[in-house]
Design brief:
With about 210 residues, the protein is α+β, with helices and mostly antiparallel strands. About 30% of the residues lie in helices and about 25% in strands. It has two domains: about 80 residues, Phosphorylase Kinase, domain 1; about 110 residues. It has a six-stranded antiparallel sheet, covered by helices on one side. A two-stranded antiparallel sheet has the order 7-10. Strands 8-9 form a two-stranded antiparallel sheet. The chain is globular.
């Protein structure tokens, strides 16, 4: 895939770098001249704790239309339902997982994710709060995925996502292997280990929630 040329409506994009894998697809950095974008190519790999009810591209397009009016997300540039991909704006900056692994996550970004959580909760929606889905750019916290679900407290920030933000060792391992260790998350349920990070999480909740 790296080095491959993709043609989209008379424009050519070169695949430059693999960015990561999520529940629904693989993301790549692509470029057209001096302009960078993200290509997300959907995959069919099963997730034991998540089911997609429709075309993944259709789901992401519909999610984008709702999310863009609520929080900062990359602009959707192009998509193809038949070939199951979408192209979106590239946000330059470190992903939160990298900052956590390097012990460089600022309190300002923790405060910001709680503000985003409040917005999403009021809208009765959950985004995917896993740290690889957020980029810090120009001191802003940006959600670079489009996925969301109906609000369920079990999968919100304070009961699920924030435990990964507190897990320095876990983020180091995830960035190295692309997998969450069995000690950090239940394979079957997708729920994180909480006990080891409860003290830090409660400090953040008391301060920002």
């Amino acid at each position: 895939m790296i080095g491959e040329i993709i043609r989209v409506k008379e424009r050519e994009f070169v695949v430059k770098k693999f960015l990561g894998k999520g529940k629904s697809g693989y993301s790549y950095l692509i470029e057209n001249g001096d302009e960078n974008y993200v290509l997300k190519k959907m995959h069919d790999e099963p997730c034991p704790y998540y089911d997609f009810q429709d075309s993944k591209v259709k789901c992401e397009i519909n999610d984008y239309k709702r999310l863009k009016n609520l929080i900062k997300i990359p602009q959707l540039i192009e998509y193809n339902l038949e070939e199951e991909y979408l192209i979106k704006e590239y946000i330059d900056g470190p992903i939160v997982a990298e900052l956590i692994a390097k012990k460089q996550l600022s309190e300002a970004m923790v405060e910001r994710i709680f503000k985003i959580f409040k917005i999403m909760k009021e809208a009765k929606m959950n985004i995917d709060y896993f740290p690889t889905n957020f980029v810090v750019s120009n001191k802003e916290l940006i959600y670079v995925d489009y996925e969301f679900n109906d609000y369920d407290p079990q999968w919100d920030l304070i009961n699920w996502g924030i435990y990964y933000w507190a897990n320095i060792k876990g983020m180091k391992e995830y960035l190295k292997t692309g997998k969450i260790s069995k000690s950090d998350q239940s394979v079957d349920s997708g729920l994180p280990d909480k006990e080891a990070f409860e003290e830090q999480v409660q400090k953040w909740i008391n301060k920002y929630n």
